[in-house]
Design goal:
Layout (H helix, E strand, L loop, with lengths): L10 E2 L5 E2 L3 E3 L15 H11 L5 E3 L3 E2 L19 H12 L5 E6 L15 E2 L14 E2 L2 H20 L4 E6 L4 H6 L14 H18 L5 E7 L10 H12 L5 E5 L16 H6 L4 H11 L4 E4 L5 H9 L5 E4 L2 H4 L3 H7 L16 H4 L2 H23 L10 H21 L5 H29 L8 E6 L6 E6 L1 E3 L3 E6 L6 H8 L2 E6 L2 E10 L4 H8 L3 H14 L4 E7 L3
Parallel strand pairs: 3-4, 3-13, 4-6, 5-6, 6-9, 7-8, 9-10, 10-11, 11-12, 12-13
Antiparallel strand pairs: 1-2, 14-15, 14-18, 16-17, 17-20, 18-19, 19-20
Bound molecules: flavin mononucleotide (FMN).
Length: 567
C-alpha cells in the first residue's frame, strides 16, 4: 500500500537531514545588510516572524559570495568569518522556531547592480543584457572562473560554521550560474562554453567544491530554471539534461523556477491551459517531466502556489516533494502554519502593477517595470517587519516608488562611502556615482517612458549646445512649466556639463509634452531650490523622489530658468 503524502509529512533528504514538513519559505532578497553587508537585528526580527510560521525549510534571500558584485545595494555578503557572530545569531533565530535554515549563495554576474559595482560587471562572455542602461559585462578569465567557484565553497564552509543547516546555490533567474548555462549569454569557446556539458561545467564544479567544503550532514541544494523563456536561451529540454547531471552529484533538493531580469517568468506567467490554472504553480508541469531524471533527489517547485488545495494536490500527486512560497510569506509570515491548519486556506494574491492603458501593458518595458515594482513592494514588507512592524497589504504603490529611490540611492552610496580615504578619492567616487545614476537610472527611465508613450513634465528632456563640440546635447531633466517658460534644476549646480553649456550659450530647447520648445536659459543662484522643487511636483511622490535623488547624490543643486522664445 502506498503511503499518502500530505503537506505535513516530514521529508528525508539524502544528507540525512529531515525537513519537518513540505512547505518551504523560498528565497526573498531582503536588502537588509549593514553598511559592511553583514546581517543585523533587522534580519533577526524578520526571521523571528518566519521562525514562528512552522515552515519545513527557510531559505534566506540571496547572499553574495563576492562583495565587489552585488545584486542590490543592501545585500548580505559572506566572504570570510569577520562577522561570524552576526551570522550565528541570524541562523539561530530561524532555528529557534524549529525550522532548518539554508543560506542561498549567489553571484549576480552581468545582473550586478551597476551603481554598486566599481568598473565593469563580469559574465561568461561580454554579452549585454537586453535592458536599457545596464552596461556590457567583461568576460571572466579562466582563473577568475576558478576563483568564483572557490568563493561559493568558502561561503558555504563559513555558513556551516555559523550554524546554518545548508546552502542553496542560486542557479536560476539569469544570475551568473544561469548565464553560464544559457547559450545566449555564454559564447565561450573554451571548456566553459559550447556544448551543454561545457556550459554546465561551472555549476557542477561549484556543487562539487561546495560539497568538499562542508560536512556530510550539511544540506546542499540548488535553485534552477526550467527555462529562460527567451528564444535561443536555456530550454526545458536542456534543463532536463542539466538536472540529470546535477542529480548525479550529492545534492539534497532541486528547486524549480524560471526566467531572468530580461524575462521575469518567476514572478508570474500567463496560464497556458486550464489545467495549469487549476494547479496554480506555473512550473509544476515541467517538474513532473524531470521526475525520472532527478532520480532520488527531492524536487521543490516555487511560483504561484496560493491555496491549501493547490499545494496539497501537488504533493499528494507526487508532482513535487516540497512547495515553495515567496511573496505570500512577505504578507503572511506564518503562511505555512495557516495552510497546514486550514484545508480551505487561501494566501493573499498580491501581484502589484501600475495601471496603464491596455495597449501598453504588453510591452517589454512595462512588464519589466511592473516586475520591478512588484518585487520592491514585497521588499518593503520585509523592511517593515525588519523594523518591528506588521506587513501592510494596502501599502500604496507610490510609496514603494519613493522607498526604492531612497534605498537604492542613499543606502547604496553610504556603504561605498565607508571605504573612502582622501578627498580626491571622494570626488572621483562622487563623480562615478553621479555618472552612473545619470547613465543607468535617469536616462534609461526617461527613454523607457518615452518609448511606451508616457511623457511627463517630471521627467523630460533638455537640449543644450555643447560648448566644445558645438553639437546638440540632450539630457533628462525634471521640469515645471508655466506660461512663459520652465524651471529646471541643475542637480550638480554649475558643475554639470549642461549647466556649463548654458553659461557658454544660453540657447536651449526643452520638450513640453510631445513638443520641443525653444528658449534661453540662465542659472538663478539666489533662487530657493528646495521651495522650487516643491512647486515642481505638487504630487508628494515626485517631490520626495526628487529630494531623495538630491540627497543620494550629495549634490549642490541650482535652479535654472528657461524663458520661451518661440511665442
Ligand atoms: C522581493 C522578492 C525578492 C526575491 N529574492 C529572491 C532571491 O534572493 N533569490 C531567489 O532565488 N528568488 C528570489 N525571489 C523569487 C522568489 O523566490 C520566488 O521564486 C517568486 O517570488 C515566485 O514565487 P511566489 O509566486 O510564491 O512569490 C524574490 C522574489 C521577491 C518578490
Amino acid at each position: 500500500m502506498t503511503k499518502t503524502v500530505s503537506l505535513s509529512t516530514p521529508l528525508d533528504l539524502p544528507c540525512g537531514q529531515i525537513l519537518p514538513n513540505r512547505i518551504m519559505k523560498s528565497a526573498l532578497s531582503e536588502g537588509l545588510g549593514t553598511a559592511h553587508h553583514a546581517p543585523d537585528v533587522r534580519l533577526e526580527r524578520l526571521y523571528a516572524r518566519w521562525a514562528a510560521g512552522d515552515y519545513g525549510l527557510i531559505v534566506t534571500g540571496n547572499v553574495m559570495v563576492d562583495r565587489r558584485y552585488l545584486g542590490e545595494p543592501g545585500n548580505v555578503v559572506l566572504e570570510n568569518d569577520s562577522e561570524l557572530d552576526a551570522f550565528q545569531r541570524w541562523a539561530k533565530t530561524a532555528q529557534d522556531g524549529g525550522s532548518p535554515i539554508w543560506m542561498q549563495l549567489n553571484h549576480p554576474g552581468r545582473q550586478a547592480n551597476p551603481i554598486t559595482t566599481d568598473g565593469p560587471t563580469v559574465a561568461p562572455s561580454a554579452v549585454k543584457l537586453d535592458i536599457p542602461g545596464i552596461p556590457t559585462p567583461r568576460e571572466l578569465t579562466d582563473t577568475e572562473i576558478r576563483d568564483v567557484i572557490e568563493r561559493f565553497a568558502v561561503s558555504a564552509g563559513i555558513a556551516e560554521v555559523a550554524g546554518f543547516d545548508g546552502v542553496q546555490i542560486h542557479g536560476a533567474h539569469g544570475y551568473l550560474i544561469s548565464q553560464f548555462l544559457s547559450p545566449l549569454a555564454n559564447k565561450r569557446s573554451d571548456r566553459w562554453g559550447g556544448s551543454t556539458a561545457n556550459r554546465a561545467r561551472f555549476v557542477l564544479e561549484i556543487i562539487r567544491r561546495v560539497r568538499e567544503a562542508v560536512g556530510p550532514g550539511f544540506a546542499v541544494g540548488i535553485k534552477l530554471n526550467s527555462a529562460d523563456f527567451q528564444r535561443g536561451g536555456f530550454s526545458e529540454e536542456e534543463s532536463r539534461t542539466v538536472v540529470e547531471m546535477i542529480a548525479a552529484e550529492r545534492i539534497d533538493l532541486i528547486e524549480i523556477s524560471g526566467g531572468s531580469y530580461e524575462s521575469p517568468a518567476m514572478m508570474g506567467r500567463p496560464a497556458v491551459s486550464a489545467r495549469t490554472r487549476a494547479r496554480e504553480a506555473y512550473f509544476l508541469d515541467y517538474a513532473e517531466t524531470i521526475r525520472e531524471v532527478a532520480a532520488d533527489v527531492p524536487l521543490a517547485v516555487t511560483g504561484g502556489f496560493r491555496t491549501h488545495t493547490g499545494m496539497a494536490d501537488a504533493i499528494a500527486s507526487g508532482a513535487c516533494d516540497v512547495v515553495g512560497l515567496g511573496r505570500p510569506t512577505a504578507l503572511a509570515p506564518k503562511a505555512a502554519q495557516g495552510v497546514m491548519a486550514d484545508t480551505s486556506a487561501t494566501l493573499p494574491t498580491t501581484q502589484r502593477s501600475v495601471k496603464l492603458p491596455r495597449r501598453l501593458t504588453g510591452t517589454a518595458q512595462v512588464k519589466a517595470l511592473n516586475g520591478a515594482l512588484d518585487l520592491q513592494w514585497h521588499t518593503d514588507q520585509l523592511h517593515t517587519m525588519g523594523a518591528g512592524g506588521d506587513p501592510d497589504p494596502h501599502r500604496p504603490l507610490w510609496r514603494t516608488a519613493v522607498t526604492t529611490v531612497r534605498r537604492n540611492g542613499i543606502d547604496a552610496f553610504r556603504s561605498q562611502r565607508g571605504h573612502l580615504g582622501t578627498s580626491d578619492k571622494k570626488a572621483v567616487r562622487k563623480f562615478r556615482i553621479e555618472r552612473a545614476v545619470g547613465r543607468y537610472v535617469a536616462n534609461p527611465v526617461v527613454a523607457a517612458l518615452t518609448r511606451v508613450g508616457i511623457t511627463t513634465t517630471f521627467a523630460t528632456e533638455l537640449e543644450t549646445i555643447g560648448r566644445r563640440t558645438g553639437l546638440r546635447r540632450t539630457v533628462p531633466v525634471s521640469a515645471a512649466f508655466d506660461e512663459t517658460g520652465a524651471w529646471v534644476i541643475s542637480q550638480h549646480g554649475a558643475r554639470s556639463g549642461w549647466a556649463n553649456n548654458i553659461s557658454a550659450n544660453p540657447t536651449v530647447r526643452i520638450k513640453q509634452g510631445r513638443q520641443w520648445r525653444s528658449g534661453t536659459a540662465e542659472l538663478v543662484h539666489d533662487d530657493d531650490v528646495t521651495k522650487r522643487v516643491r512647486t515642481f511636483a505638487p504630487n508628494p511622490v515626485f517631490a520626495s523622489l526628487t529630494a531623495a535623488s538630491f540627497r543620494a547624490l550629495q549634490s549642490d543643486p541650482v535652479s535654472v530658468r528657461i524663458s520661451f522664445t518661440d511665442r
